[in-house]
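pinned: reference chain
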Amino acid sequence: MKVSDILRVKGSTLYTVKPDQPLAEAVAIMSEKDIGSLVVMEHGDLVGMLTFREVILQIQKNGGQVGTTLVRTAMDDHPLTCTTQTDLDEVRRMMLERHARYMPVIESRMLMGVISFYDVAKAVVDSQNFENKMLKAYIRDWPEETNAPSANG
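pinned: its structure tokens
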């Protein structure tokens, strides 16, 4: 299974912010849209990722306040990325290794979407459920042997 399979099911709605926007605006967007991440774009290029983790760290640094902090100060400026053709097993490995919950999908320098650890887990579970259903159907339709030797000889 590839990242493109997740994006096809998930859709392509993206929420972005600029690095020079106030962090308070970004937090308001995340809250209003009920999302855990925003892609940070500047001049059409991905320059960072802002997740609730970075927001919480910045609030803690500011003594419990968002204050006048800009997105640039809080964002992860080296986020993990993948392509639409990246295999899901590789994405899982990368996300687990870096404790990343969100990963931008880039194709030829163009942002194609963002996948979350939830999206990856859901795709794996859905795939396993489908495989399980197919195996059960196969076993249920197993042909009976007509010339099987009897236990009596």
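why pinned: The chain has one domain: 3-140. The mean pLDDT is 88.
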